[in-house]
Design a protein that fits this description.
globular; single chain; mainly alpha; 0% strand; 425 residues
């Protein structure tokens, strides 16, 4: 089957959804394969390196894909050439930081005495930096083929690489080589599936537009990283590698399907919620019911089956106490439940509420560290994470209701009836 035929098949949203399910399934299968081969300690060390690269990526995120997709001039050739130049420069900076800062720091901590893991991650960052952005431009016309096929090919290549590498190596380096295989394949397919030739140049007027668009995203990047990865960051800081590996495996097992369902809700229910808000002013009772039902099913299902699933996917070495598994499931369910308040906030355009609720999740990091200090081990970490998510959920629901009440009061005050009351003697 030729490339053009594949493009035709992969253009629409239906193939994109299928590709998303397949990629998430491969992520879980690949992670289970690597975790089984490496064991909890090496898997925990790998998780530390992966967090390091994710942090550097988030702190230098310039939002170039969002600019290409949404800005009125994002598709212009001179603009895309400048985007490619900025992306390459950013990747070079991340690669230098990994080598110049990461290696000495980890060497002093005794995690590694070799520069090789940082060189592998630096190469992966360079692959990301030299990705062709034409596939993102094609999405402006609802052509999802390049992105869907590229992601699918990257996951297939990295899963095959993992299956081969674990036969010859059982160290944390396997996970890093797999990241390189994934990013290199994604970069390669971005060129193979592009319609325009790759160009790299620096145009000052274009760069000014990109800078104005990207500056808030650059500031927001680290905040989003710490709020999204707070639990894993606290685990990396407070737990020994073996416990970190076990805890990371349990998190992955529930995080992967929950993220898949979140994307499904965003595709199916969020547009419906926005339409219902515009047409009727109702606060999405169907969406709220689906959210609550999914959260309850998630918490109950992981409490009942989580321990067995961990043993099935990761093996006996990753056995975890039932109570810790249940707390992890409840924490993820609370995190998932905030989709209702964030969905309402998006429908009404109250985006400040989302930033506030996300920022409050930073409280999870000190609560997790406090839990490890007061209770100890993975149990203390799990309880701290649960407390942090509960606080964030209560605040998210309260703040969106307050914002909606203020909006309703303002609307009532400016209505014709209210105006006539004001004019009455």
């Amino acid at each position: 089957m030729g490339v053009n035929r594949l493009r035709v098949l992969a253009r629409g949203s239906r193939f994109a959804l299928v590709a998303l399910v397949l990629t998430q399934a491969m992520v879980l299968a690949r992670s289970a394969l690597i975790a089984r081969a490496l064991g909890p300690e090496q898997y925990g060390i790998a998780a530390t390196f992966i967090l390091l690269q994710q942090f550097l990526d988030s702190t230098s995120d310039t939002g170039l894909n969002k600019f290409t997709l949404s800005h009125a001039q994002g598709h212009l050739r001179r603009m895309m050439a400048t985007i490619h130049a900025i992306s390459a420069a950013r990747a070079g900076l991340v690669a230098l930081l990994l080598l110049a800062v990461g290696w000495p720091a980890f060497h002093l901590l005794g995690v590694t005495s070799s520069v090789l893991p940082f060189a592998v991650l630096a190469a992966a960052s360079l692959c990301i930096g030299f990705t062709h952005y034409d596939g993102i431009r094609m999405q402006r016309g609802s052509d999802l083929s390049a992105v869907s096929l590229g992601n699918l090919a990257a996951e297939l290549a990295s899963t095959a690489a993992a299956a081969l590498l674990v036969l010859v190596d059982q160290s944390y380096l396997v996970a890093l080589w797999v990241i390189l295989a994934k990013t290199a394949t994604a970069a390669l397919f971005s060129f193979l599936l592009a319609r325009r030739p790759y160009a790299i140049a620096f145009d000052r007027p274009s760069a000014r537009l990109i800078w104005a668009f990207s500056l808030p995203l650059m500031i927001n990047g680290p905040v989003l990283f710490f709020t999204a990865q707070g639990e894993r960051l606290a685990a990396a800081a407070a737990l020994p590698p073996r416990e970190l590996g076990i805890y990371t495996a349990a998190l992955l097992l529930i995080y992967t399907p929950s993220q898949l369902f979140l994307r499904f809700l965003g595709t199916v229910f969020l547009p419906e919620l926005s339409r219902e808000v515009r047409e009727t002013g109702r606060h999405g009772p169907r969406f709220a019911f689906v959210t609550v039902a999914a959260a309850v099913a998630m918490a109950a299902g992981f409490a009942l089956l989580g321990q067995w699933l961990i043993l099935l996917f990761f093996g006996e070495r990753y056995r975890l106490d039932w109570l810790i598994v249940a707390i992890i499931g409840l924490t993820q369910a609370l995190r998932f439940s905030r989709v209702w308040s964030s969905g309402l906030a998006l429908a009404y355009g109250i985006t400040g509420q989302i930033l506030g609720a996300n920022s409050l999740r930073l409280v999870m990091i000190p609560l997790c560290l406090l839990g490890v200090w007061a209770i100890g081990g993975m149990m203390g970490l799990a309880i701290g994470a649960l407390a942090g998510e509960a606080i964030a959920l209560v605040y998210a629901n309260w703040s969106v209701r307050r914002a909606l009440a203020r909006r309703s009061a303002a609307t009532a005050a400016t209505s014709p009836a209210a105006a006539s009351d004001d004019l009455a003697p």
